[in-house]
Amino acid sequence: MSGRPLLEIKGLTRYFDVSKPFLDRLVERAPRQYLRAVHSLSATIGRGETFALVGESGCGKSTVARMVAGLIPPSGGTILFDGQNVAARRSGRADRELRRRFQMIFQDPYASLNPRWRVKDIIAEPIRAFDLVKSAHEADARVGELLTLVGLDPSDGAKYPHEFSGGQRQRIAIARALSNNPEFIICDEPTSALDVSVQAQILNLMRNLQDELGLTYLFISHDLAVVRHMATRIGVMYLGKLVEVSPAHELFAAARHPYTQMLLDAVPDVEMTGRNRAQVKGEVPNPINPPSGCSFHPRCPYAFERCPAEEPGMTSVARDHEAACHAVAEKRI
Amino acid sequence: MTETLPKPAMERSGRFARLWGSDIAWSYRRSPVTIVASIVVAILIVAAVFAPWITPQNPFNPAGLNLMDGFTPPMTANEFSGNFFVLGTDDQGRDMYSAILYGARISLFVGVMAVLFAAVLGVTLGLLAGYRGGWLDTVIMRIADVQLSFPAILIALMIFGIARGFIPPGSRDQMAVWVLIISIGLSDWVQYARTVRGATFVEMRKDYVQAARLIGVRPLKIMFRHVLPNVMGPVLVIATIGLALAIIAEATLSYLGVGVPVTSPSLGTLIRIGQDFLFSGEWWIILFPAVTLLALALSVNLLGDWLRDALNPKLR
Amino acid sequence: MTEPLLQVRNLRVEFPTRHGTLVAVDDISFDIAKGEVLGVVGESGAGKSMTGSAIIGLIDPPGRIGGGEVLLEGRRIDNLPPSEMRKVRGRKIGMVFQDPLTSLNPLYTIGEQLIETIQTHMALSDSAARKRAIELLGEVGIPAPESRLNSYPHQYSGGMRQRVVIALALAADPALVIADEPTTALDVSVQAQIIALLKRTCAEHGAAVMLITHDMGVIAETADRVAVMYAGRIVEIGPVREVIKSARHPYTEGLMASIPSLSHEQDRLFQIDGSMPRLNAIPPGCAFHPRCPHVFARCREERPELVQSGASRAACWLHAGDRR
Predict the structure, then answer these.
(1) In the complex, which subunits touch B with 3 or more CB pairs below 8 angstroms?
(2) Chain B hits for C98, Cβ within 8 Å
(3) Residue range C249-289, pLDDT digits in tens
(4) How far apart are CA B137 and CA B50, in angstroms?
(5) Residue-wise DSSP of C96-115
(6) Biggest alpha carbon distance in chain B?
(7) FRET pair for C174, CA 20 to 30 Å: which of A253, B52, C160, C264?
């Protein structure tokens, strides 16, 4: 890894206004309500690596993905893509040049492809948007090339999305994401809507493409086994905050944060190794009103008086490995 | 049940074969009422469009009318002139068959144009409200709410009255048709706007819209190239049923005497004229235009009902 | 040998469409013994949910049972009139679905729904039924069950709702609980709780479980035996350890190998190419043959039936030579 990281996230925060409509608030004298989706999150992603964000639903991982993609503006903090602020306003030309360099793969391949468009038009849309080809003929050739690259047939371009299975649709979505030659792809749960055998195909394809094209991935997932297979580094999120960041292999060997340990224990033992599993307590609290201090303290077996009182910061526990936990910082666990 | 039944592959290829094999065509073939309704509509449209070539006289040309032919009953020869009229004549000696076809022409023209106007206006406003949201959505939808609280015919009457005030008396008769179209159209856009707004909200959440936003596609282009084709299904249904309503609205306005002038009568005007003779025994003057209007409006409405069911995947 | 609790014989579920009849479940047979947990696993479109719905007589029209029979405690239930079937559901067979909200009526309190279910199937007085409802809620791990009785479903969290659904399913002490993807809609950390709960409470009540899921991990932890379904047929059935550790059918083998491992690193995952065929295009012979690495001539022509292979039974010509 040389020079500056490809993506640098600093203090990223996002609140959603979940207040009732104005008139209702006036009548009920209710205050505005905000949902804390992402709270002061910092991370860096180096070129060629796969950084995974894991966490349960509602932890804010998809919100991070959408902010990085520039689809929703952050409430605070910055996202620097190769040194340029993604959320900042810039001229049309510079904006296009920046947007050309990243892409996104979405979770549900049934919703991410316009059902009224032919596959070749879907894949060619970014090519046209960024004026990457000179003629329609050239665009067709490029679409055919991309379809072949993702394991489909160039003749499939003339079909509509409903003629394909879920896995094939995700391949089409990947072809679209590759069509503007991005360096960085945000993958928002790309296989969680797919069956296991198809998931394996898509994950293999994504790794092959990464090797061939030198792509960098931000990989969002709730499935630890998938993350283990894909990621070089992993960030674990809980209620909008990063609680642990670690190189992938180390997280599975020596997770430090109690929440990470709990998540690992919750994965069913499909290999029937007789792995010892601790029973997990409780459920994720409401993000509108998160617990004080460390948000995990009500479910944490190691919680002590400091936890509800004070928000823990990141402590380094090993090389490239940090956890936000008072018990870890005080070497209690 | 999570398992969905996939669409079977088409054995035949080709555009027509694909259309014939489609679910829509299939549900059409299975509904005799719809087939009859569509034949009625088709006959009326063809007859109205080709009226000048298939009618014995031009009922809009006062010079071509002979007062001596007045009040001839249907299927009989006039006692003075000896002229024969299939559906009889009115007080002016106008051939009812010709008048009905020319009248249907006006009714259909006004109906189609009013629906087009309402649909374009409503769809555009609905897309804008749904896509932009926020204050623009609030403003558009409040206007729609206000308008919904008035009966459509009252709004049309009001717009009609205002428009007449602005048009010089000399050109009023020429402009009447366009004023009608705008009045009916303006009283009917709300439905389109509401439906499209709701559907746009749903589509906007889907990731294909986000994928387009991601690469910087302009909002207008997303609205019309991505979202619009996906919300057209319900619009088509409303437009079909709306056509029947617009034809009736035109007839009502003309019947109330604020529609097209008597010199170029629509079906509604013909009914109004006929009403005067209802109790003096000349029943044909009102009956035939009324039956035509009924057949037209009913058939279009039945088509709309079928279309709604055919496009609804839950009822298939 | 004692009689199995549930016997499914040559069950066939079909959907008449204008392009011909689609067969969603094709001639499948299996038993569930008293108190046993049978896992039914398969990918979407395999027919696993349809099998569950057929057993409880809840197939959405135009789908219908096209053949075979279902026997509960030796009595046929697939041809019962709807009113009789309603009594069987709830009293004899409890149900847990993926989305707890489909099983709970938002307009009634949890207590009202539990008490109603209890009184429909058991002759209990109001106070006795209420007492039982509180017991059940306590059993499924709802804290302070007495006060929670008066809450509405929306006041419960997702995991708590699924606990209530399990309580409802067990309300009349059924002999069998059919759980269709009971944890799919839940968070990872809650999934494990619900699975453990389902297993424990059913064992305590002596109820057998038919656990339908796409998640091999859940099966591995919960089931005694497992049936693997592919394109409307059972391709392999046997003791869970046997099926997972030494799969006989190439599909099961591929399915297991394609699951990413938590315990060791892999460069590339094993992948089965292609996808499950659509119902209108199920290949002749063995439905898996276009994707099978071991395919030979016979697979394309003749459909294999389940034959004994080790402790399991598999429908694959590779094992045709094994002892029956």
Answers:
(1) A, C
(2) 2
(3) 999 999 999 999 888 888 889 999 888 898 888 999 999 99
(4) 44
(5) E-SSHHHHS-TTS-HHHHHH
(6) 79
(7) C160
Would you state the pLDDT for residue B8?
A: 43
Out of C47, C59, C280, name the one closest to residue B6 (CB).
C280
Q: Which residues of chain C have pLDDT under 50?
A: 323-324
Whether residue B11 has pLDDT greater than 70:
no
Contact state of B214 with A99 under an 8 Å Cβ cutoff: yes
CB contact under 8 A, B3 and C15: no
Question: Over the stretch A80-91, which tens digit does the pLDDT of each residue have?
Answer: 999 999 888 778
Identify the weakest region by mean pLDDT among A9-13, A285-289, C249-253: A285-289
C touches which chains (3+ CB pairs under 8 A)? A, B
pLDDT in tens, B186-207: 888 999 999 999 999 999 989 9
Write out the DSSP string of B195-251.
HHHHHHHHHHHSHHHHHHHHTT--HHHIIIIIIHHHHHHHHHHHHHHHHHHHHHHHH
* C43/A280 CB distance under 8 A: no
Give CA B189 to chain center in angstroms: 13
What ipTM was estimated for this complex?
Answer: 0.90
| Count of B-C CB contacts under 8 Å | 30
Q: How confident is the model at residue A251 (pLDDT cuts 50, 70, 90)?
A: very high
Please give the domain boundaries of chain B with CATH numbers for all domains: 28-48+88-311 (1.10.3720.10)
Say whether A265 and C190 touch across the interface (CB within 8 A): no
Q: Are A215 and A183 in contact (CB under 8 A)?
A: yes
Tell me the two tokens of residue B53: 């070539």
Chain A neighbors of C156, CB-CB under 8 A = none
- List, in sequence order, the alpha helices (H) in chain A: 22-28, 61-68, 92-99, 119-129, 136-149, 166-178, 196-213, 224-230, 248-253, 258-266, 306-309, 326-329
Q: How far is C213 from chain A (nearest CA, A)?
A: 11
Across the interface, of B3, B8, B26, the residue whose CB is closest to C24 is B3
Q: What is the DSSP letter of A331?
A: T
Q: Which of residues 273-292 of C touch A (CB under 8 A)?
A: 273, 275-276, 278
